Amino acid sequence: MIMLEAATNPGTIMGSMTFTRHAAIVVTVLSLGGCANLERHNPNALSQGDDDAYCQTHGGPQGSAAYTACRKNRDVAVTRSDRMERSHRDLAERMLNGQ
Asked: Which stretches are tagged as biased composition: Basic and acidic residues (predicted)?
């Protein structure tokens, strides 16, 4: 049946191979997209390196009082920012739900 179909319509076999190839590419892209997106959802991992570099540049070497104060101030700022973002998200959700 397949041989007869291929003889009458030569694009059938190539069409199924093309579909399979496209499906494999889509699955691969979605898998890699999920991995790339993981970094964006973990801002603490990204900010740790940034905070360390910033505080070494502006506060002094690791372990110094100025470095420790810099890291503490940046941690307080991040906590405050996270709290503000959470309250805005909660407010938007309440508005959407009509509460």
From this structure: 79-93
Contact 61, 67 (CB under 8 A): yes
Question: What residues does each domain of the chain span?
Answer: 1-41, 43-99
- Decide: 75 and 54 in contact? Cβ < 8 Å: no
CA nearest to 69, candidates 51, 84, 81: 51
Report the C-alpha gap between 69 and 62 in whole angstroms.
11
| Residue the block writes with tokens 């940034």 | 50
> What is the reported pTM?
0.48
Q: What is the arithmetic mean of pLDDT over 23-39?
A: 69
